C-alpha cells in the first residue's frame, strides 16, 4: 500500500499560518501530542470496559523519547491506534473555513484554540521539518500504517512497521527548535503540561548520582500523578494530603496554606478543584496567576481571569472543568452564562467556607486574620454579593490586638465615641509608633483606637463609611482630640485677632520649607494641660492622597503637596509667655508702623466704600489706580511688620523648640532639622 495526496485544507498556506500564529506558544506541541496519546489510551480502556475490545490491555502508558543525533522526538502510546481509513479521516482532513477568518476570530486566545479546532496534531509542525506517524489499530486484522509529511499539503501514506497496537508520532525537529532536544527542556515541559494526566507518562529512566554524574537506573521515570487530590472525594483525604498536594503544586513554597476549599460539582456544570488560601508574610508579595486551570486533567493555563472573580485570583490551587469554553477569546468569557455560573459558585463557596470557619473556629480564624484580611477586603470592594456575605466576618483590630466584628465594635464604642451630631466616630492609626502621642491623647479620653495599616485599609474604610449608618473613620492624628469627636460646642479663643495674627507670623518663620508639604497655622482653645503646639493632617485630603498612591486615575490628588495644620493652643502658658516677650521686645519698634498701617487701612476702606457705592461703569480709571496704590502701600506696611515678627520668631529659641517638638511628635522631624533640634535642646538645658 502506498499513496500520495494532499491534506484537505482550504488554504495552501496552512502550515506557515500555524507556525506564525502559534509561535509565542510553540512549546505547546508536546502537551497536544501527549494529550492525544492519553485520549487514545483512555478510549481503548473504555472499549474494553464495554466489551468491544477482547484483547489484553497490558500497560497503558505514554512514552516520550528523544534522539539528539537524529534530531527526533517520539511520542508513543499503546492506545487504539488508527487504520489507513482513520488516518485519512482524522489526519488528512482539517475542518475549518479559512486561515485568515480563523485567525481573526480567535486572535485573542492563542493558548486554548489548539486541540479544539483539530489543530492538536498539527501543532507538531511548529517545531518540525517533517512529521511521521507509525500506527496500528486495535481492530482485528488491521495493518500497520505509515504517514509522513514535510510541512506542506503533500503527504505520503504507506504500509507501516509497527507490530503492536498504538501510535508513534516521530518529530524531525527543525534547526530553529533544537532547544527541545534536551532532557531538561523536555522534562520541564512535561512537568508543566502533563504532571496530572490520567495515564502514566514515562520519560526515560530515573537517574541516580554515581561516580560524579547522573546515570540512568532500570526504573521508568514516571513524571505524572494519575490520581491528583482534586480528583478524589473530600472524604478520602486528610489534612496532610491537602498540604502535601499544595507543596506538589508549589515545590518552592515552604509555608503551609492557611486552609483550603475542595470543589466538587457535577450539576448544573462540572467543576472540581482545590483552592488554597496562602499564608501572607508580606502583603506586598501577593501574586496572581497561581491558580492552574485544567480540562479533564490536561493543563490549560494559569490565566484564570474571567473564570475566577478577580479578587480570588490571589488564591492558589487547581480548577478542572470541561465546561469552560476554551475555544473562544477570553473577552467572551465575561458574557458566557456557564462561566458566570461557575464564577458565582466559586465566590459563594469561598464566602461560605470563611463564614463556617469564623462561626465554628473563631480563635483559629482570628489567628489567620492578618493573612485573610487582604482577600476579604479585596472581595468586599470588588463584589457586592461577597460584601453582603463577608460583612458578618470582616474583623477590626484594636491596639491591644483584640478582634471585633463591625457590630461588636459598634456596641463597644457607641456610648463613648458618638459625637454631638449622633455620628459614631471610629479612631484609627496606621503607624502606632509614629502616631504615639496622638494615640495617647485618645486613650486618655477613654477612646478606643483601631489599627488599620494594611494595603487596602484606606479603600475599605471608605466603603464602610458608605455602607454603615452614621459611622465615620478618623485617623487619630488628623485633628486635636477635642475636634476628633466633638462632644460640645468648641471653646472660643481668648486671644484677639491681632494677637493671633502676630503669633501666626512668628511661627511661620520656623515652619519647614518643603515643596512636598504645606503648613497652615490655626488656633484652638485646647485647655491648659494640652500641648502648646501640635501638628495634624486633615482626614479627607490625606486619605485621597493615600488612595491615589494605590489607584490609577487619582493622580490629581497624588501630585498635590501634603497639607498639615500647625495647631497653636491658645490656652497654653507658653504662648502667653511668647506674646509677652514679643510685646516687650518688638511692639515698641512696631508702634509707628502699626499706627501708619491703621491710617492706611482706613484710606483703603474709605476708597473701597466710595467705589462700592457706584455702579462699576461709573468708577473711573483714575479711581481704580488710586485704590490700587493705596492697597499696595498697605501691603508694604504689613510686609514690614510681618518681617519684624518673623525675624523675632526666627531668633527666638522657644518658637523653634515648640515647632520641632510638634514635628517630632508627628514623625516629621528628620535629618538636619532633627540634628539642629538636638543641639538646641542641649543648649537650653
From TrEMBL:
Gene3D superfamilies reported in the protein's UniProt record: 3.30.230.80, 3.40.50.11260, Histidine kinase-like ATPase, C-terminal domain (3.30.565.10)
Domain Histidine kinase/HSP90-like ATPase, chain residue ranges per copy: 25-177
Pfam families to which the protein is assigned, alphabetical: HATPase_c_3 (PF13589), HSP90 (PF00183)
InterPro entries given in the database record: HATPase_C_sf, HATPase_dom, Hsp90_fam, Hsp90_N, Ribosomal_Su5_D2-typ_SF
Presence of keyword S-adenosyl-L-methionine: no
Keywords from the UniProt entry: ATP-binding, Chaperone, Cytoplasm, Nucleotide-binding, Stress response
GO MF annotation terms: ATP binding; ATP hydrolysis activity; ATP-dependent protein folding chaperone; unfolded protein binding
Domain of life: Bacteria
SUPFAM superfamilies assigned to the protein according to its UniProt record, in alphabetical order: ATPase domain of HSP90 chaperone/DNA topoisomerase II/histidine kinase, Ribosomal protein S5 domain 2-like
The keyword Cytoplasm is assigned to this record: yes
Binding-site residues, ATP: 32, 36, 77, 82, 97-98, 167, 330
NCBIfam families assigned: PRK05218.1
Family stated for the protein in its record: Belongs to the heat shock protein 90 family.
Identification of the protein by name: Chaperone protein HtpG
Species this chain originates from: Porphyromonas catoniae ATCC 51270
Organism ancestry: Bacteria, Pseudomonadati, Bacteroidota, Bacteroidia, Bacteroidales
Amino acid at each position: 500500500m502506498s499513496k500520495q495526496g494532499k491534506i484537505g485544507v482550504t488554504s495552501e498556506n496552512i502550515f506557515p499560518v500555524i507556525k506564525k500564529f502559534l509561535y509565542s506558544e510553540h512549546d505547546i506541541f508536546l502537551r497536544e501530542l501527549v494529550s492525544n496519546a492519553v485520549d487514545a489510551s483512555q478510549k481503548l480502556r473504555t472499549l474494553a470496559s464495554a466489551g468491544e475490545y477482547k484483547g489484553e490491555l497490558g500497560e497503558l502508558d505514554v512514552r516520550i523519547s528523544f534522539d539528539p543525533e537524529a534530531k527526533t522526538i517520539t511520542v508513543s502510546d499503546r492506545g487504539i491506534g488508527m487504520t489507513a481509513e482513520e488516518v485519512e479521516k482524522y489526519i488528512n482532513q482539517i475542518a475549518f473555513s479559512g486561515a485568515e477568518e480563523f485567525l481573526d476570530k480567535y486572535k485573542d486566545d492563542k493558548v486554548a484554540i489548539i486541540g479544539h479546532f483539530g489543530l492538536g496534531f498539527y501543532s507538531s509542525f511548529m517545531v518540525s521539518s517533517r512529521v511521521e506517524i507509525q500506527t496500528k489499530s486495535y481492530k482485528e486484522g488491521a495493518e500497520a500504517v505509515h504517514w509522513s509529511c514535510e510541512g506542506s499539503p503533500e503527504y505520503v501514506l504507506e504500509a507501516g512497521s509497527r507490530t503492536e497496537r498504538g501510535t508513534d508520532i516521530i518529530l524531525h525537529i527543525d534547526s530553529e527548535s533544537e532547544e527541545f532536544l534536551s532532557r531538561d527542556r523536555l522534562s520541564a515541559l512535561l512537568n508543566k503540561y502533563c504532571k496530572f494526566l490520567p495515564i502514566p507518562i514515562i520519560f526515560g529512566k530515573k537517574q541516580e548520582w554515581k561516580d560524579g554524574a547522573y546515570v540512568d537506573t532500570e526504573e521508568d521515570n514516571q513524571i505524572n500523578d494519575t490520581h491528583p487530590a482534586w480528583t478524589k472525594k473530600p472524604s478520602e483525604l486528610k489534612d496532610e494530603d491537602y498540604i502535601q498536594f499544595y507543596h506538589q503544586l508549589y515545590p518552592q513554597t515552604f509555608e503551609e496554606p492557611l486552609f483550603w476549599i475542595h470543589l466538587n460539582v457535577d450539576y448544573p456544570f462540572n467543576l472540581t478543584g482545590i483552592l488554597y488560601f496562602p499564608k501572607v508574610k508580606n502583603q506586598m508579595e501577593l501574586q496572581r496567576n497561581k491558580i492552574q486551570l485544567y480540562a479533564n486533567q490536561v493543563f490549560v493555563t494559569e490565566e484564570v481571569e474571567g473564570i475566577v472573580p478577580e479578587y480570588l485570583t490571589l488564591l492558589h490551587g487547581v480548577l478542572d472543568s470541561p465546561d469552560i469554553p476554551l475555544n473562544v477569546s477570553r473577552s467572551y468569557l465575561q458574557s458566557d452564562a456557564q462561566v458566570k455560573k461557575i464564577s458565582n459558585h466559586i465566590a459563594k463557596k469561598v464566602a461560605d467556607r470563611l463564614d463556617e470557619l469564623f462561626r465554628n473556629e473563631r480563635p483559629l480564624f482570628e489567628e489567620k486574620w492578618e493573612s485573610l484580611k487582604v482577600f476579604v477586603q479585596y472581595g468586599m470592594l470588588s463584589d457586592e454579593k461577597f460584601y453582603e456575605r463577608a460583612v458578618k466576618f470582616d474583623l477590626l483590630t484594636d491596639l491591644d490586638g483584640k478582634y471585633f466584628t463591625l457590630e461588636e465594635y459598634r456596641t463597644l464604642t457607641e456610648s463613648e465615641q458618638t459625637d454631638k451630631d449622633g455620628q459614631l466616630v471610629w479612631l484609627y492609626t496606621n503607624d502606632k509608633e509614629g502616631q504615639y502621642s496622638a494615640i495617647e491623647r485618645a486613650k486618655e479620653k477613654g477612646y478606643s483606637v483601631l489599627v488599620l495599616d494594611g494595603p487596602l485599609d484606606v479603600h475599605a474604610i471608605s466603603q464602610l463609611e458608605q455602607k454603615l449608618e452614621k459611622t465615620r473613620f478618623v485617623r487619630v492624628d488628623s485633628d486635636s482630640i477635642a475636634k476628633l469627636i466633638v462632644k460640645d460646642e468648641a471653646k472660643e479663643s481668648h486671644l484677639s485677632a491681632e494677637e493671633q495674627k502676630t503669633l501666626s507670623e512668628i511661627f511661620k518663620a520656623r515652619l519647614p520649607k518643603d515643596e512636598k508639604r504645606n503648613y497652615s497655622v490655626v488656633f484652638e482653645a485646647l485647655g491648659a494641660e494640652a500641648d502648646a503646639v501640635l501638628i495634624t493632617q486633615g482626614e479627607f485630603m490625606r486619605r485621597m492622597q493615600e488612595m491615589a498612591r494605590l489607584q490609577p486615575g487619582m493622580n490629581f490628588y497624588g501630585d498635590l503637596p501634603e497639607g498639615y495644620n500647625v495647631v497653636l493652643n491658645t490656652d497654653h502658658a507658653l504662648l502667653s509667655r511668647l506674646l509677652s516677650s514679643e510685646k516687650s521686645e518688638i511692639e515698641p519698634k512696631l508702634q509707628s508702623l502699626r499706627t501708619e498701617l491703621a491710617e492706611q487701612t482706613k484710606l483703603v476702606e474709605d476708597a473701597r466704600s466710595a467705589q462700592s457705592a457706584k455702579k462699576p461703569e461709573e468708577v473711573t480709571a483714575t479711581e481704580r489706580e488710586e485704590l490700587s496704590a493705596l492697597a499696595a502701600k498697605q501691603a508694604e506696611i504689613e510686609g514690614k511688620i510681618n518681617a519684624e515678627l518673623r525675624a523675632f520668631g526666627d531668633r527666638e529659641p522657644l518658637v523653634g523648640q515648640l515647632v520641632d517638638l510638634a514635628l517630632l511628635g508627628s514623625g516629621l522631624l528628620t535629618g538636619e532639622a532633627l540634628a539642629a533640634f538636638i543641639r538646641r535642646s542641649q543648649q537650653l538645658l
